[in-house]
Design goal:
There is one protein chain. 7% of the residues lie in helices and 67% in strands. It is mainly beta and 256 residues long. The chain has a single domain (3-255), classed as Lipocalin (Beta Barrel), CATH 2.40.128.100. Strands 1-4-5-6-7-8-9-10-11-12 form a ten-stranded antiparallel barrel. A hairpin with an 8-residue loop joins strand 11 (216-230) and strand 12 (239-255).
């Protein structure tokens, strides 16, 4: 696990601990109305880590990405929620397509075209504990990963496609604290994997929001999302993905 992953993982643990510490002693009654939330957001992201194709019996290809905007080819990022009373479901969809040309050294230098598709979808069941000027949501569910890596030697047109898909069980919490009538701070942390899917995956984010209207909010957060996974294959079928995303996130929150 890389240094950034360990640091942001520790931040996630602290945020989750604070969320549980904020559980109000006596929750107020929640209205039984339906609430629908959809929040497309802009991700000004960086990505660090390594994706490894091949193992001890083959030549590995290690990919190390810095600024994601330099290699971003496609992105779809949406958060949604449905609540009725104290119970709700939450979901996230993140689809990134990255591309980069890497020059390989040697007597006859050639260009390797690398394309990565990262598809992450989350689904959680949540329980809300409202209190004076704050609310705490505890949730559990799954985080589904689907990673595809395509490698092509441009000069020879030789190509290799490899990747992996897995499902991580996830538990977490989120706390929202109002500072004034229209302003609030929010923090969320969750953990998953536990060796069932990945070794570990986690998400931590926190920020400040402004309720411009009862049906619309602006939300600025800083988000970290990390995963450490490797399959059980050997040789050329070996695949490992140890990557951390970290980014400021601007969300446009619509409520109905």
């Amino acid at each position: 696990m890389n240094t950034t992953t360990r640091f942001l993982g520790a931040f996630a643990a602290l945020a989750l601990a604070l969320a549980f510490a904020g559980l109000p002693a006596s929750a107020q009654a929640q209205t039984d109305d339906w609430e629908f939330v959809i929040a497309p957001y802009a991700l000004f992201a960086s990505l660090s880590g390594d994706a490894t194709v091949g193992g001890a019996q083959a030549t590995p290809v290690d990919l190390d990405f810095g600024d994601i905007l330099e290699s971003l080819r496609f992105a779809t990022i949406v958060h949604s929620e449905v609540w009725k009373g104290d119970w709700g479901v939450m979901g996230d969809l993140i689809w990134l397509r990255l591309g980069e040309d890497k020059t390989l050294g040697g007597p006859l230098a050639t260009v390797l075209d690398v394309e990565i598709d990262q598809f992450v979808i989350e689904g959680f069941l949540g329980r809300r504990f409202p209190g004076p000027n704050r609310q705490l949501d505890l949730f559990g569910g799954v985080r589904v990963w689907d990673i595809g890596i395509d490698l092509e030697l441009v000069d020879t047109e030789r190509a290799l496609g490899l990747g992996g898909g897995w499902v991580d069980p996830v538990v977490g919490g989120r706390i929202k604290q109002y500072l004034a009538e229209d302003w609030y701070v929010i923090a969320r942390a969750d953990f998953g994997g536990f060796g069932i899917g990945s070794d570990i995956s986690w998400n931590a984010q926190g920020g400040i929001g402004w309720e411009a209207a009862p049906w619309f909010s602006l939300l600025l957060q800083y988000k970290g999302l990390g995963v450490d996974y490797e399959n059980d294959e050997t040789g050329s079928d070996f695949f490992a993905y140890d990557v951390t995303h970290y980014a400021p996130v601007l969300g446009f929150v619509f409520r109905f």
